[in-house]
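S2.1 Query sequence (Branched-chain-amino-acid aminotransferase)
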Amino acid sequence: MSFVYFEGKIVHEDEAKISIKTNSFHYGTAVFEGIRAYYNKENDTMYGLFFKEHYQRLFTNMKILNMSIDETIDELVEITKDLIKKNNYKEDVYIRPIVYFADLKISPKLIGYTARIAIYTLPLGDYIDTSKGIKAKISSWTRLNDNMIPPRLKVTGAYVNSAFAKTEALLAGADEAIVLNKNGYVSEGSAENIFIVRDGTLITPPVSDDILEGITRKAIIQIAKDNNIPVVERNIARTELYVADEVFFCGTGAQISPVVIIDDRVIGDGSPGKITKFIQNIYFDAVRGKIEKYKNWVVEIK
Ligand code: PMP
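Output structure tokens follow.
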């Protein structure tokens, strides 16, 4: 039984229940985050990764949905650290904060309701493979855009689009979907941003191509720049994926996941690429607090 944060307190998970009448449960209007904490066994320490950045994004998302809660970003960082400590983890952990309209009222709207935050945690190793390389499939589902459900929102309703894409990919024998936007350009995976490598340059779709403004994406751009790997944010066409030297997904859950097959075409030589592995090695050390330069990414949980 784990400890969770619910209605202003840390409680046992069996005490954290919501009514079937809860407004956001019906209309997909809850905003959430996916955060990780990593265990470093060399010094027996848990490191929270980008805690502040995730809660900042949550607050930006809340602003768009006209939500406010009692807790501040700094308080939520402390509550999350307390939860990890109380649950006594000595392994990698995923953290799921969710802000929802708690009113037991009918009607999809964003005014006149009270928002609350709940947070739970679970042990989580790889969400998708990070070593051998995975198979992806271009989705027949189109990515949402800013005038439908804004892709910059991590809002529960938007994940219907992700669920369609992921399910289609799985049923076709692939591991993950790549979703194109309304203009036919590559946007992202079902729950990951995407990078390709061509002639030593990292290329990733711009925010205007209907992607989530990923925190891992930003960290990767920083690693690349610090190591003189050129990075370009520009449109990527579907067939450019097929001819890329390397492709990888990134995200808090996905971490850095090399893609070696797309629509039955082999990418590069069919194994995780050199630049992908280079960035991955730095990332996996940084998230466990092992790189001085990136110590500001993590918070020690003591
Ligand atoms: N895109 C989508 C749709 C996602 O759900 C996620 C996971 N949060 C990402 C990209 C990656 O974002 P981040 O690196 O901030 O986890």
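DSSP finds seven helices and 17 strands in the chain. The mean pLDDT is 98.
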